[in-house]
C-alpha cells in the first residue's frame, strides 16, 4: 500500500511593513535578528549560500567515511521561572476569586495560577495540600537540577536557531520585536537562502548533511512523543528520553543513521545518585537504514528502523567503527571511562531474522520498558519524506535486535582517567584514519583524551588537562579544533619518540612511539551563539551585535595576510526599527486575515491588501481597542452557542489570553493565567451532544505549552478553574461525565473531578486504559484544528508572517464556483470573487522579469496584480521559506522546488482558463512556464523533477493531475537521447513485473511504470526491446489485477501507447479488460483516479488509432463472448462509440450491425432478453446518427447500407439476414423506409442516384424465403431508378453526410430528399 500523500500545501510569507515608506526587507532577515528570534524561532534552521551568480552553496564538506556530526550539546529541559505576575503556588487550582469573573467591561486583573510543574513521585500529597491551601515541600524543578557542562554553550552553526519544544519564551514581559528600518543594501559574501521549518517544533540536537549536501537530516531533542498505546509492552515505565546525538555510518555497505538519547532528568530514573559517578547513566540507541536516491524523488527517502537497544553509559560516548577489511564494531565508553567494543552486522532485508520479545533484566526493570520519544528525521533544502519513528526500549541483553546482530562485548581498556564526580564524559568525536584505525578525541569537565583503536587493541593514548571545552571537531586526520566560549584552538597530532622528538608515523624507533598534540594557532572569535569549523584556518560564527542584528562572521588565520585571525562579516540581518511587526496570522477565509502584533494589538485586513507590496498597501481595515502585554503568539475562533456570536481567543507570550469580537475587534475579556504561551484550544458547544460531560458544554479548554489547562465559559466569559501542568507534554485528554483524565507523555495520568474541583489520583498508563475501557469517556482531539476556521488558508507554525495555502482545495473550490451558471446576483458575485482570488493567488507564484511579453500578458490580459508574497515549498510536513524575490532565483534551487512552483502556476492558470475571455492568454502563459523557462532562467536553471510530477499524478485531484501531466510531457520532450536512455535504464529495474508479489503495488514500482511507460510512449525508438517488453507486461499486470491500486495508470498508458504495447502482449486481452472496466464502474467507486472514465477514454483512443484490431475484437466478442456479462459490456461499448466516435465505427458499421443482430438469437431466450435493451439502444442511436441505417418498427426490419453499394436487410424477430439488395455501384449515403414499410429508398451521392425498392411481404416470399421481393419486372433491378443533379452540393465528406443528408416522408408514396440547402421530391 502506498502512503497517502498530504495535500498540496504551500507556505506563503507576506511582506513586513517598512519604515519611512521605504521598501521592506524579507521577514526571514528580521527573524534572524536577536530581538525577534523569540517570536519566530521554533527550532528552525536558516540556510545561507554564496550569491546565485557564483553557484556555490556554503556547506560543510562531507567526510568520506565518517562525516562530522553537527550536534548541539545536550541540555536539560528548562524550567518555568516565576515572575511578579505569576500565580501563587499555594493557590488552589479550582478556586476562583471574585475578580476572576467577568460581568461587564474588561478587567486587567491577573488570575493567580498555581505552580505549573508537579512531580509525580509526591504529586498526590502535594496536590492534596494545594487543594487545602497548604504549601508543600518543593522538589527541585527541572531548572534547578544540576546541568552538565556545555548545556548553555554555543551550538553548531547549522542549529543556531534551535529552541526547546516545551520551553517557554521569555517569562517577563519582553520587549516587542520591532520592524526593520530601511538601510542601504550591504554587499556580503553570503545570502540568506531559506528558513527550514520542521514538521514539529522542538529543540534541535543534531544535523547531518548527506547525499552530496542535498539531504538534511535533523534530530530533535523530543520530536513527536509516541502515543501511550503505541508501546503496549512497556509496563510501569515513567521515563522519557531526550535525543542528543545523530551520526552517519556505513555498515556492511549499508548507509545507516545512529541516534542516541539520554534519560530526561525529570523522569523517574533521570536523576542519578552522585555516588554512582555516572556509571548507571543509560543511553537509548536506534539504528536506521537510510535509503535515499535523488532520482526517486521527494517521497522516496526511506528511514527504516533496523535495531534499537539500551546501553549503560553516556550517549556522547557511542559510535560505530567501520573497517573495510573486517567486521564493523559498535564502540561505547561507559560512565567510568572504559572503552568496550562489540562486533556489529546487519542482516539483509527479508532474511527471516526474527526479533524476539525483550526479556527484562532484573537490575534495570524500568529501562527495559521505557516510554520513548519518537525520532523525527526529515528532509529539507531538497525536502524528502518525513519519518516518524516510534521508539520502544529493548534491553542490552538481546544479542540480536531486529536486523542488527551484536556480538559479545569485549572491554578494551580504561581510556578516560579519573571519571570521578564532576568529571564525567561530555563529548566524543571519532574519525577513521586510513582503513585500519579509529582515532577518537573525547573530553570531560577537566581532561581531553585522544586514543587510537586498531588491530583489536588500544593504541597511542594521549591525555592532557583542559577545562571549559564547549566542543571538539576533527578537521582532518592529523588536526582537530577545540572550541571555547570565545576562541578556537587548532592542534596538530604528531608521533614522538622517548626524547619527544618528532618522528614519522610507522618509523622504527626504540620504544613505542607516542601520540602528541601541539598547538598550531588560536583564532579569537569573541562571544558567539553558534560556530562552524571550515578548515584549520577558517571559522564561521553567528553572533548578535549591539544593534540587535545577527551577523555571520568569517575568521581566517593567514600568517602573511591575517596573523591575528580577525573576523569579516559575510552576512548581516536586517536592521530593526521602532514599529511593531506581526507575530501571528489567522485567516478567517480566503478574503480576510487577522494579524496579531508584537505589541499585543489585534488587527484585521484583507488578503489583497496583505499581499500587496509596499508602498501600495493601504490602512488596516480594523484594529482592536485593547492590547495584551506581550506579543500575540496564538489566535483561535470560538463561538457563543446561545448568541451565535464569534470571538477571537488569542494568547500572548507572557501567558495572558483575551477574547475579542470577530465583527468589531472589541476586547471582551482578558486574563493573565499561564506562565507559558497559549498553545491549543478545545471547545465544547452547548449543542454538542457528543460531549461526555454536560459540565463542559459551552466551555473552552485553553491549554498552554506546559500543559496547564484553563476552563472558561464563553457565554459571559467566566473563568471557572485552572488545572496545573506537568514537566512532560500533554498529548491526550479524556473527558467523562464528571471527570477529566489527563495523560502525559511519560505514560502517567492524572484524574480530576471537574464537579467538586478536586484531584483524585495519579496512575500509570495501564490503569488509565483500564479506566477508559470501562466506558463513559470521550477522547478530546487535543491537536486538531477544531477552533480554527475551515478555510484553504491556515496558520503556519514556525513563522509569524506566513500562512499555509492548501492549493489543491483552493483550486477545487474555485473551479467549482467558476463553472456555475449565474442565475442571480449572489452567484454572479461568487463567480467574480473566485476570479479575483485566482488572480491574487497566481500573483504569489508568478516570477515577473523573465520575459517582458509574458509579463505584459499577465498584467494587461489576465489582470494579475503585483504581489510581495514569497511562496515556499513543503514536503513531508517540513517547509522551506525562501528569501528574496529574484525572478530567476526560485528556479535555481532544486528540481522539486521548480516542479512545485511550475505546478502551482499551471494549475491556477488552467482554472483561470475556465473564463472564456482569459483562456487564450492563460494557455500562452502555461506554455511559457512549461517549455521556455530553461532559456529564460539560464544555465543555473533546475528543471522540474520528473518524479515529483509523477508522484503528484498519483495522489492529487483531477485539476492537479492534468497540470502535472502537462509539465511532465513538456519535461520529457526536453530530455536528450542520453538522458532518456539513462532514466529508462534506471527505472526499468523497478518495474512491477520484475518485483515480487508483495512489492508490485509499491510506490517505486508504480513510479517506475509511470516514468518508463510515458517516456516509451513518446520516444519508443530509444527504448530497448527488453524494456518495452517489461513495460508492456507491467501494464498487463496492473490492468488484469482487480485489486490493484494502479489500474488507472495502466489504462492511461494503454490510451497513449497501445500501438507499441500490442507487439509485446496479448492485445485482444488488453482490449477486453478495457471493455469491462469502461462499462462496469460503479458510482461508489468514483475517485480522483476513477477507472471507468479513464477506460472509456482509452477505448476511444484505441478505436481511433487501432481501428482494425479494435473492430475485430469488438465483433468477435459480440458473437463469441466469454460470458453474458462480457457481451453486454461489449455492446455497451458499441453504444458508447456511436455517441462519442461515430466516424470510427462508420467503415465497419455493417459488421457491427450484423453481430448485434445475431446476438438476439431467439433460440436462446435468456441471452436475448439480457441484451435486448442494449441492442435496442444501439439501433435507435444508429438510426439517429447514421443515414445509412434505418429501422421499421412494424415489420421489425433493419436496413444497413454498405460502402460497396449494397443494402443488407435483417429480420430482428428471427435475428437473421433476409437478403441483400445490390443496385448501387458506389457507396450508399443514406436509406429510409416508407411509413408503411413497403418501400425502401436508397441514395448514393457519388452516383447522384436514388433507388426505390419494394421490400414489403409478398405471396412469393413464402416459397422463396431469403430472396428479395420481386420489383415488378424481371431480374434484380430496383423498382425505380431516379437520377438527380445538385452540382457541388453533392460533394461532401463522410462526416458531413451524417448531418447534411436526410429524408422526409410527407406521404406513403412521396419522399423529400434534402441535400444541404437543396430539396428534391420523388414519387415512390
From TrEMBL:
PANTHER family membership: RABCONNECTIN-3B, ISOFORM A
Annotated signal sequence range: none
Region (Disordered): 1-25, 56-96, 131-182
Coiled-coil residues: none
Protein name: WD40 repeat-like protein
Record field: compositional bias (Low complexity): 65-89, 163-178
InterPro entries: ARM-type_fold, WD40/YVTN_repeat-like_dom_sf, WD40_repeat_dom_sf, WD40_rpt, WDR72-like
Cellular component per GO, a single term: cytoplasm
Species of origin: Roridomyces roridus
